[in-house]
Model the fold of this input.
Amino acid sequence: MCNLYRMSKSAAEVAGLFNVNSASAGANTPELHYPGHPGLVVADGKLRPMHWGFPLTLKGKHGQPLKPKPVNNARTDKLSGPFWRSSFENRRCLIPVSAYAEAEGPKGAKTRTWFHLPDADLFACAGIWRASVEWGDSYSMIITDANEQATPTHDRMPVIVTQQDWPAYLSGSPREAFTLCRPWPGEMVIERTDQPWVAK
Done:
């Protein structure tokens, strides 16, 4: 699962790396990304600002509508279900990421453990997106089983797509894209910190 990631490059730098339109070069997005907040994704040949999390409509005990919950992770074993299927088949995107974090440690004292790729300032995680009434265009990050390095911290991890596979993930058939939704096979850098998981 991923509920926090960092993207430390400017929109113009990201657009250059992905060789897409930089119309969002002035988009105001933070370095730290949390569910329910804006982020940048590569979709339809453009770098686009979107809301992180598909809105899930909730109701109270008496049937009254509650504030929607952002569903920010899409598990690979659930992509064929009704909540995700249309987006995975028709609206895939790439999420630029510098590092992602998992919570580690005892309850009430969890800290941030960061994962990133060696010698890479930026990499791409697999995502899907759709339009929503509640928040406009929204994206979710695809997660899969954790690899051997990440397993001690969490049993799942984001799907990381190699640069050579970006076109196949974005424009290939759903079957072809799904074959790329696998645990990261390469090396990772793990940085354990004393940063509280929940920001004070």
Observations:
- The first strand starts at residue 5 and ends at 6.
- Residues 156 and 177 are 19 Å apart (CA to CA).
